[in-house]
Amino acid sequence: MQVESITERRKVAVARRHQPAGVHTVEFPAWGDGGHGPELGPHPDELRLEVTGEDGLIVDWFDDNWWLESLRRWKDRTLAIHLLPTPDALLHPQVTHELEMVRRLNTPWRLIGYTYVSDIGHASVIRGVAASRYDEIRVIDQQRPSTESFEVGLATLELADVLEEVRHAQASEQVGGPMLTRAPLPRACAQPAHCNV
Hints:
- The protein has helices spanning about 1-15, 65-75, 95-105, 115-120, 125-130, 160-175, and strands at about 25-30, 45-50, 80-85, 110-115, 135-140, 180-185.
- It is elongated.
- Strands 1-2-3-4-5-6 form a six-stranded parallel sheet.
- By secondary structure, the chain is an alpha/beta fold.
C-alpha cells in the first residue's frame, strides 16, 4: 500500500513538471474589445495596452469596469502594465484617473508609459510628466509619426532637455518618480501610430 502511495506521488510530481516558460504577455489592442480572455491558464506577467485610437480618443473598453476586472483577476500578482505610445495616451485625463485608482489600491503592479519626445518635449507638460503616476516613462527619441486623424506637434525641447527639466520639477515637488528612460526605436508596423516597442 505504501509503495503505491509513493509511486502515485511520483507520477503526480512528474505530471506537474513543465519546461521553463518565458514572459507571458496579454495584449489589448485599441481596435479590440478589451476582453480579458479565459480565467484558466497561466497568469500574465505583463499587459500591453493601446488605450487610444489613431485619433487620440480613449478606446471604448478602457474604463473603470476594465480595471475592476483586471484587479479582480490579478490584484495580488506582480504585473508590468505597459501603456503603449498611442496618440495622446500618456497624460490623457482618463488614463491619469485610472492610474490614480490603481496607486490607491497598492497593487504590486509596475506602470510603464511610452511616449515620443514630440509628445512631451514642451515646457507646458513637464510638470505633468514629473508628477504622473507611472513607475517609468520610456521616451522614444523621435517625432511621433503623423496620421490623417491626429496632428503631431514638433518638440521644442530635445530629449536631454526633457530629462533634465523633469528631474528639476521632481526635485522642486519632492517626488521620486517616475523614472524617465530612453526607449528603443519602435519596430516597423502597418499602423505607425500603434507601433509596438
